[in-house]
Amino acid sequence: YDPTADLDPNDPLATGIQEIRAADGTFDPGGFADGARSAFEMIVQGFAEGDRDNLKMLLANDVYENFEAAIDEREEAGETLESTIIGIKSADVIEAGMDGRKAMVTVKFVSEQVNVTRDSEDRIIDGDPNQVTEITDIWTFSRDTTSRDPNWKLVETRSQN
Q: Domain for residue 3, yes or no?
């Protein structure tokens, strides 16, 4: 799948993808979207499980600090979060471009999740284990195109619901 194939050359997404390809000849939007889906699942799971080591590898420092603060707060309160991704309905690249030497790609994820927060007594304080919720997340990933490291880091998150 090549999102640039059908796009108008005046389209900012097509232009952004071409800018990234100029800096990184190996950039493949389809492959990127597949990798972003995997990262999304690992990050949602890592956040729920409090897996700081895994999150640190996938998140930019400031995003990691925000996630870690939320995990710390949850742990201090004796709460647990169970996040189950039932499915990712879509993962679409909606913005792309270069910021200096950094490639920036924004993906809109629409997923179906079951999220339940329990207190220290295992009582449900938020969510419903029988309720599937459609969640829209908009995440921006970045990679230094001059680096040998092929991995992208999550640099920004926002939700649409």
A: no
Instruction: Confirm whether 111 is domain-assigned.
Output: yes
pLDDT tens column, 35-60: 999 999 999 999 999 999 999 999 99
If one counts the domains in the chain, the total is 1
Predicted TM-score of the model (pTM): 0.91
pLDDT digits (tens, 9 = 90+) for 74-95: 999 999 999 999 999 999 999 9
Residue 1 covered by a domain: no
Q: Structure tokens of 37? A: 């889906």
Other CB atoms within 10 Å distance of the CB of residue 131: 10
Phi/psi-derived region of residue 131, left when phi > 0, alpha when psi is between -120 and 50, beta in every other case:
beta
DSSP string, 112-143: EEEEEEE-TTS-EEEE-TT--EEEEEEEEEEE
Cβ contacts of residue 8 below 8 Å, gap of 6+? 14
Q: CATH code at 39?
A: 3.10.450.240
Residue 45 located in a structural domain: yes
Structure-block tokens of residue 143: 């990679």
Bridge-based pairing state of the strands 80-99 and 124-127 = unpaired
Would you say 109 and 139 are in contact if contact means Cβ atoms under 8 Å apart?
Answer: yes
